[in-house]
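Practice set, problem 2.
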Amino acid sequence: MLDDIKKTLWATADKLRANMDAAEYKHLVLGLIFIKYISDTFTARTAELAARLRDPDDEYFYGDATDEDIAAELEDRDYYTSANVFWVPEAARWEAIRATAKQSTIGKFIDDALGLIEAENPKLKGILDKRYARAQLPDGKLGELVDLISTIGFGENASTARDVLGQVYEYFLGMFASAEGKRGGQFYTPASIVKTLVAVLAPHHGKVYDPCCGSGGMFVQSEKFIEAHGGKIGDVSIYGQEANPTTWRLAAMNLAIRGIDFNLGREPADTFTRNQHADLRADYILANPPFNISDWWHGSLEGDPRWHYGDPPQGNANYAWLQHMLHHLKPTGRAGIVLANGSMSSSQNNEGVIRAAMVDADVVEVMVALPGQLFFNTQIPACLWFLAKQKQRKGEVLFIDARKLGKMISRVQAELDDAAIARIAETVAAWRGEVLHGAEGGASITTYEDVPGFCRSVPLAEIAQHGHVLTPGRYVGAEEVEDDDEAFAEKMQKLTEKLGEQMAKGAELDALIRQKLGVLGYEV
């Protein structure tokens, strides 16, 4: 049911954008969904409070209060903030916006509403994107978009509303990333990759950090993981950074609507030159940095303490990202990073030297080769690096070749399904000797074994013999095939006989064609 709603909403919204660029239109749509959600949840909370204030059996009962007394009591912001509900001024509520939808001033009205919401909610200050008055939509299209968003029913139950909103939001982010193509992917990591990182890292509590957080997908999946495994929102502290101002706002909204507390720094900023969390040491780091970026270097980074394993090349930031994350890990912390496959074997401009130093220091824990076609915006093959300063299995690296685990979900798009993700996570947990907690609250531990063609635990000395190349395919070997009792000579004889039969049949058909052409008067 919800899947049908999402598809219908997207089809209609996409049709309304006319010739507007998807990258610009995205912020208009997601901003309106945000207003609709906080307005709905505010109205639902008000109705709930009004009923409780009148209920003699409720702790909020307000005695013989008049309607005026109740109305005044409902103005107390604490009732709303304690339930993770934003205070929405009357002029900014969805009913007021919808009533103005057909007027030519609707764009300015929405911008003003966002300003009022920011003024009443310090958490949202500076993060709502007020761009509606200058939107380049044809006349009437913004009003039609308001009418469309009005059809999203978030219901009266707060947790249900948040789940509906989260799914709609995530679906729209994915569809916009697909619509934007190569320009749109720097902030969006496909859900199956995020789920794999989260499943392997298992962030149950502590500080979670993403230094290039995009729209906040890593954080959202971390919270889902915690809730699915018996924890609660708030068990982790969220820290992020994002350079793109509009994407930074998108991340803040994405987290705010889910009631997740977060610290995305004072402002959008470059992680390398304006590190917003310089003193942070995180329990878990999850990141999908932009692949192979060449314009990252600044003179101020010369001799930076983050470059513990060597100076990263100025023409490629991959090893700057890896070292930045190691620098920000607690001694007991773990990191999971998505990078281009080239990072596993490149030896240009000091990259091989840095990789060798990291391997020899025993901070590389697990390497995973991913299937192709997972990303919306690039066909560059990718891999996962898992780093840890204090590994359970010292002196070894676990290699997993997951390239064959992808399932096509469209003509151009693949994903790792839940079974594939579980297989990877269970393999890593068994290798670490950890108890793996299931979503149903159960726990299991299995003994790790190498599986030819899929996984192998490799000592550091062997990796050094291979020039510190970390490509899983080099180590896991070939997949075992079932023994075939049929002797080679017998098999060859059968194949030869079959080939002879097919050649004879071909000669018969050729003669028949020549005969038919002769009858028709053609010279053959």
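Problem 2, part (b): a different protein.
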Amino acid sequence: MEKSYEIKEVVIGDHDLTLEEFIAVARYHAETKIAAQAVDRMRQSRQLVEQIAERNDVAYGITTGFGELSKVSVDKQMSDKLSTNLVLSHSVATGESYSEEQVRGMMLLLCNSLSKGYSGCRVKLVEILIDMLNRDVIPVVPQKGSLGASGDLAPLSHIALLLLGKGKASYHGEILEGKEAMQAAGIETVDTLVNKEGLALTNGTHAMTSLAALNVYDAEELISLADLIASISFTALTGQKAAFDQRIHQLRGQKGQIHTAENFLRLTKDSEICDASQGLRVQDAYTLRCIPQVHGACRDAIDYVREKVDIELNAVTDNPLLFTEDGSVISGGNFHGEPMALAMDFLGIALSEIASISERRLERMVNASLSNGLNPFLCTDPGINSGFMIVQYSAASMASENKVLAHPACVDNIPSSASQEDFVSMGTTAARKCSTIIQNVFSVLGFELFTACQAVDLRKKDEKNNGLSPAQNAVYERVREEIGFIEEDREMRIEIEKMERLIRNREVLQIVRRFVSDYR
């Protein structure tokens, strides 16, 4: 499968969008285009909206108000103003802005949904959004304000503002007024939206799904990193490999567990420290012995979430939906974010477990009563030096913060729109929390790898051979290019900043894959 960073062009509307294509556009700025057949579908859908408006048929959001105001009829002359007012009045999100890659993802998913031809908006709007993506005009979208039903109304309204030449946007990294940014990029705006377009642009799950897609993509890398880093800690702690015997894991049958145990055996193959350590103990503590069971269960959780995200990337989550084959206009609830809410809460819980067990392995390395012979806090001169004492504190802080963030958002509910919308998903909150958890997990794993390399240096027998396997050694050597052995206390902040960059730049996994084929 082509890697996301290798994809240079993504065409929407002629096939199901893949996660790799989504990441290619959102994170790596691949060019976006729309297929000709999608343009035809959208035109047919738009024609149906105009026919409904001309006949003055009762249709939610076309000839009526929104939410509880669906009981109020709106005549044809005012329906365009209704759509424009929807965007203006709903642009009430607040707080820090979403990252550019998160907003790019929202824009792509909005275009992909509209291109299906069930929403009744003009082709022109999708073309404007695609021009914005390709010319790097990215709306400023505050993070707080979505209940996750009726879709991501507030954040998507901030995107829609740009189509009207309003709001704010980043243009090549500079924050400008919306009209100024669009003019600088040479993109025409519209004076007004027309009937149904306000709903089509705002009544979907595109904000939470964009975050969910980025989250699950990063989670897949995190779990692979976790296996790798845990294997180095395991080696430094002279772990017993019997617990990874495939016969044990086959008897249980859990796929993720089997996969993790297999990863460990491949990663530790030809490690002199491991080979020399076998038989030292009957069994290890859970943080070493039960890595397949814990990491494996989290891997299975990620696979489940990936399946739900793959579906939602191509979902039509507008309301009402138009079916051109028979002229039906059907009001439903596809905008409800429950599928993403549950998935993001589940993913946040699973990834919190990865940080928690990582921190416990780190603690075993710095605790002389648990480390099987390593120096206290991995110091060469304990007492004068504190060594890695506070590295463990920081990791513990982030692991504990994750436990707070892992509380499910989806179990909460506050009715809205005069209780017409009386059960909401909080899916966007769940996705936002999960994003924060992911960043904490990257940091905790980075701290563990930093600590494990120090522990390996203290464990090794001589200067020429650190006792690691070829794959582990390649990663160790890359760390040592950035960070040397800590002989005595120094400004650890500098080392942590280097480690943070290294753990996030995807290079570590690429190194491993040179030694362990198809590693994931």
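Answer key, part (b): The chain has two domains: 4-204, 215-315+348-513. The chain has a mean pLDDT of 94.
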